[in-house]
Automatic annotation (TrEMBL):
It catalyses: Preferential cleavage: (Ac)2-L-Lys-D-Ala-|-D-Ala. Also transpeptidation of peptidyl-alanyl moieties that are N-acyl substituents of D-alanine. It comes from Oceanobacillus jeddahense. Keywords: Membrane, Transmembrane, Transmembrane helix. The chain crosses the membrane at residues 12-31. The lineage of its organism: Bacteria, Bacillati, Bacillota, Bacilli, Bacillales. It comes from the Bacteria. This is serine-type D-Ala-D-Ala carboxypeptidase.
Length: 759
C-alpha cells in the first residue's frame, strides 16, 4: 500500500510537469503564431530574407573624353567566371548543369585561358571535397574578355557560368597617363557577399571620382534554394544613375603626336626623364602634356614614376628663367637693348663669387643686352639684376610672376619650387635660373603674360562636365587671369626678343626654326645638383636641356615647354637635337592641324581640298575622284558601294591625306605602317574591340589581310617605334659657316649654370 501510494504521488508529479511543459510549449507556439517573432526576430522578415536575392546594380562609370569628344577612358564589359558543383542543380534537367568532370573541365579552361591545368583542377577538386555548391577561380577567372567567355560557352563544358563585372579601359594605352590616371576594381564585403566597384586611384580618375562614379542601383527578387527566380518573384528594381562625362582640354590628335615623338626620343636617347607641356597661352587650356617614365593605365604594374613631373617636380630651370629677368628690366624702365656691356665674367665685388658666361667665361667681347639675350649671357642677366633692376625689386617680380605659389591647375599633387634668394651670390644666380627651383607649369603660367598683354592665365585641364543622361553641360571652365606682372608694351618687346633667339644668326635657338611659322622662345641648360657630394654633377650629359617656345609669334596659338634630363648624346650631338625633334614636329603639325595660317607667302601655302559626299556612291568612281583631287583613298573591302568614311562631306583636308572608305563588303586591310590614330579611326568605323601592344607604327595584326570583318570583331595589333632619323637642326642656317660652332657652343656647353657656390 505504501509503495502504491508513492507511485501515485510520483505519477501526479510527472503529470504536473508534463502539463506545465505542454502549457509552456503551447503558449510559446501561440505566442509565435500571434506575434510572428522568435527571439525578437520576425519570422516573416526572416523568411522573406531567405527567399530574397538582392544584388547591387553598378552604375556605369562616366567616360573621360578629349575636348573633341574622343573617348579616353570608359567602362568595358568583362566577366567573372564561377563553377557550380552540386549535382542537385541538374535535377529535372536532361543535361548536366553542374561540373560533372573536373579533369575535362580543367583541361578545356586551361587551353582557352592559357592557364595552368593543374591549378584549375585543384580549385575544382578542393571545392568538390568540401561539398561546396559553387566556387570561383580567383584572379585567373576575373576580367575575362567577351571572346574568352564565348569560347568557353561554345566548348560545351557544363557547370561554368559568368557574372558581368565592370572593367576600366583606356583605348590609347600610354596616353597622358599621368593626367588621366587610372581606376581599379575594389572588393567590399557586405551582408550579401563580395561586391565589386571601380574607384579612381590617380589623376583625373581620382580627382573626379565622385563625378565619374555615379550612383549604384539594386535589384531584388524571390528565389528558390538554387537561386532560381520564382514564377512570381516580386521583383524590385532601383535603376543606377550613371556617372557624368568629363571632357578634358586635351586634344587627342596632338597628344598622340606628342606621345609618339617622346617615345621615339626615349628609345633613341634613353634619358632619365622627359617632360612636355603644350598650352593654349590665351586661355590656359592644356592641349597636351606628357612625361617619361610613363605607364600604361590598363596595366599599371611596376610604375617607375607616379608623379606628374611637369606640375609635381620642381627643378633648377636654367636659362629659360632669363625671360623673366629681361621682362622685369623692361618693365622697370631700366632696359636699353642697344646698351653694351663686357661679356665673359662678372664680379660685383671681391666678396661675391664670379659669374661666368656659358662658354667657359670667354664671352663674346663687348655686346649689347639684346645680343646678350640672344646668346643667353649669364653676365647680362646678373648685371641687369644687380646694377639696373635691384635685387629687392627683382624679388617682387618673382612673386608677381607667381613663382612662390601654385598655379592652381586642376590636377592633383601640384608642388611649388623654392626661391633661393638670401645671399648676393644666390640672387645673382637666380637671374639666370640656377639654385632656385620652379616647376614647368609655373614657367608656362608666367610666360603666358608675354602673349596676353602682360596678364598671366591660369592653366587647366578640365574643359566641362556633361550629364551622361541629358547631355546638358553641368560645369564649364572659363579662362581665368591671375595677375599682370608686366605691361602690354613690355610683353610686345619680349615677343621680339624671344623671336630673335630663334631667328637671328646669333641666337641660341636656331634648331627650333620652322618652315611655315615664326617661332620665339628661350633655350635652357641647367646643371643637376650632385645628391652625394654636393655641388653639381659634371659631364656633358649631366644637364636638363629645355626649350620654352611659342608660335606663330605675331599671335601665338601654342606655347610649348620641352625638357630632357641626362640624354645619352652622341659626340657630335648637342642637347637641342632631341628637343628640336619633339618641338619642331609637334608645333608644325599641330598648327597645321588647327588650321593656323602660316607665316609664309600665300604662294607657298598648301591649298586644302574639300572632301566630297561618298556614302552610297560607287566605290570605283569615288576612288578615282579622290585620287584626282590629290587625296589618298584606302578602300576597306571589295564592295561596290561606299557605306561610310572617316571624313565627313564638306570637310577640308590637306592633299595627300589618307582617307578610309568602308565598302558594303568589308574585309581586313593590311595595317602595316599605320599609326595608332589611323588604326583607331578604322576600328571606330566598324566598332571593333581593339587591343594594342607597344607603341609606334603597326607591324602585325591578329586578323588576316583580306578576311571578312564585321562589327564587334576583336582586333589585336603590335606597334614598334622606328629609329629616329637624323634631322637638320640648323633650319635655314646651313649656309652660315659658323652656325655649327654656335649651336654646339650654346647647347652642349651652355653652362650658365656651371657656376657653383663651391667654385
Amino acid at each position: 500500500m505504501k509503495k502504491n501510494k508513492m507511485a501515485n504521488v510520483m505519477a501526479s508529479i510527472y503529470m504536473l510537469v508534463f502539463v506545465a511543459l505542454f502549457l509552456v510549449i503551447a503558449g510559446r507556439f501561440m505566442y509565435i503564431q500571434s506575434t510572428g517573432e522568435v527571439s525578437g526576430v520576425s519570422l516573416n522578415e526572416w523568411a522573406e530574407q531567405q527567399r530574397t536575392a538582392s544584388y547591387k546594380m553598378n552604375a556605369e562609370r562616366g567616360q573621360i573624353m578629349d575636348k573633341n569628344g574622343m573617348v579616353l577612358a570608359y567602362d568595358r564589359p568583362a566577366f567573372r567566371m564561377y563553377a557550380i558543383l552540386d549535382e542537385a542543380y541538374s535535377e529535372n534537367s536532361p543535361e548536366d548543369l553542374h561540373v560533372s568532370n573536373t579533369e575535362e573541365t580543367a583541361e578545356t579552361l586551361a587551353s582557352i585561358l592559357d592557364e595552368d591545368k593543374s591549378e584549375i583542377k585543384s580549385i575544382l577538386d578542393d571545392a568538390v571535397q568540401s561539398e561546396r555548391f559553387q566556387v570561383e577561380f580567383g584572379q585567373l577567372g576575373r576580367q575575362l574578355s567577351q571572346q574568352e567567355k564565348e569560347a568557353i560557352e561554345e566548348s560545351g563544358i557544363p557547370g561554368i557560368y559568368f557574372d558581368e563585372e565592370p572593367m576600366r579601359y583606356y583605348p590609347n594605352g600610354m596616353f597622358a597617363s599621368h593626367i588621366i590616371g587610372f581606376a581599379r576594381e575594389v572588393e567590399e564585403e557586405t551582408e550579401d557577399g563580395i561586391e565589386h566597384s571601380i574607384t579612381g586611384v590617380t589623376g583625373m580618375e581620382h580627382v573626379m571620382n565622385e563625378v565619374l562614379g555615379g550612383k549604384d542601383g539594386s535589384i531584388s527578387y524571390q528565389r528558390d534554394r538554387y537561386n532560381k527566380k520564382l514564377l512570381d518573384p516580386d521583383e524590385i528594381i532601383q535603376e543606377p544613375e550613371d556617372g557624368d562625362l568629363v571632357y578634358l582640354t586635351l586634344d587627342q590628335k596632338i597628344q598622340t603626336l606628342l606621345e609618339d615623338l617622346m617615345t621615339q626620343v626615349d628609345e633613341q636617347y634613353n634619358p632619365t626623364k622627359m617632360n612636355a607641356i603644350i598650352m593654349d597661352p590665351k586661355t590656359g587650356e592644356i592641349v597636351a602634356m606628357s612625361t617619361r617614365p610613363s605607364f600604361n593605365p590598363n596595366s599599371p604594374e611596376n610604375v617607375e614614376n607616379w608623379y606628374n613631373d611637369p606640375i609635381s617636380s620642381p627643378f633648377e630651370p636654367g636659362s629659360t628663367f632669363k625671360i623673366f629677368t629681361w621682362a622685369a628690366a623692361i618693365e622697370e624702365g631700366v632696359y636699353n637693348g642697344e646698351e653694351t656691356f663686357e661679356s665673359g665674367t662678372y664680379q660685383p665685388n671681391e666678396r661675391i663669387e664670379e659669374i661666368r658666361d656659358h662658354n667657359q667665361g670667354e664671352g663674346w667681347g663687348t655686346i649689347s643686352y639684346d645680343e646678350g639675350f640672344m646668346r643667353s649671357s649669364n653676365v647680362a642677366a646678373s648685371k641687369l639684376l644687380w646694377e639696373d633692376i635691384g635685387a629687392d625689386e627683382f624679388y617682387e617680380y618673382i612673386q608677381d610672376f607667381g613663382f612662390e605659389e601654385p598655379t592652381g591647375i586642376d590636377l592633383p599633387d601640384e608642388s611649388i619650387g623654392h626661391i633661393q634668394y638670401n645671399w648676393p651670390s644666390e640672387k645673382l644666380r637666380t637671374a639666370f635660373g640656377q639654385g632656385t627651383t620652379v616647376t614647368p607649369i609655373q614657367q608656362m603660367r608666367a610666360a603666358s603674360a608675354v602673349v596676353n598683354d602682360g596678364q598671366m592665365v591660369k592653366p587647366y585641364v578640365v574643359d566641362k562636365i556633361v550629364d551622361s543622361t541629358t547631355g546638358n553641360v553641368m560645369e564649364e571652365t572659363e579662362p581665368e587671369y591671375t595677375g599682370q606682372p608686366i605691361s602690354p608694351e613690355t610683353a610686345e618687346e619680349m615677343k621680339e626678343l624671344l623671336a630673335s633667339v630663334v631667328n637671328d644668326e646669333d641666337g641660341t635657338g636656331a634648331p627650333y626654326k620652322l618652315d611655315d611659322y615664326i617661332v620665339g622662345g628661350k633655350t635652357g641648360t641647367a646643371q643637376m645638383p650632385d645628391p652625394e657630394g654636393g655641388g653639381y654633377l659634371t659631364g656633358r650629359d649631366n644637364y636638363v636641356f629645355s626649350f620654352l617656345g611659342m608660335a606663330p609669334m605675331d599671335d601665338p596659338e601654342l606655347m610649348v615647354y620641352v625638357s630632357i634630363q641626362q640624354p645619352e648624346l652622341e659626340d657630335t650631338e648637342s642637347g637641342s637635337a632631341p628637343l628640336a625633334f619633339i618641338f619642331n614636329n609637334v608645333v608644325e603639325n599641330s598648327l597645321h592641324y588647327l588650321d593656323v595660317e602660316t607665316d609664309e607667302n600665300e604662294s607657298n601655302q598648301i591649298e586644302e581640298v574639300e572632301f566630297p559626299e561618298v556614302v552610297d556612291e560607287s566605290t570605283e568612281s569615288i576612288q578615282s575622284d579622290l585620287e584626282e583631287r590629290g587625296i589618298q583613298p584606302i578602300v576597306i573591302g571589295e564592295g561596290e558601294n561606299i557605306v561610310s568614311s572617316n571624313v565627313e562631306a564638306g570637310e577640308r583636308i590637306l592633299p595627300n591625306e589618307k582617307v578610309l572608305l568602308l565598302t558594303d563588303e568589308p574585309t581586313m586591310p593590311d595595317l602595316t605602317g599605320w599609326s595608332l590614330r589611323e588604326v583607331m579611326s578604322f576600328a571606330d568605323m566598324l566598332d571593333l574591340q581593339t587591343e594594342r601592344f607597344g607603341n609606334g607604327y603597326v607591324t602585325s595584326q591578329s586578323i588576316e589581310v583580306g578576311k571578312p570583318i564585321q562589327e564587334g570583331d576583336y582586333l589585336g595589333f603590335e606597334l614598334e617605334i622606328p629609329s629616329v632619323e637624323s634631322s637638320d637642326d640648323s633650319g635655314d642656317e646651313d649656309n652660315e659657316g659658323e652656325e655649327t660652332e654656335e649651336e654646339n657652343n650654346e647647347e652642349s656647353t651652355e653652362e650658365a649654370d656651371e657656376e657653383t657656390e663651391d667654385e
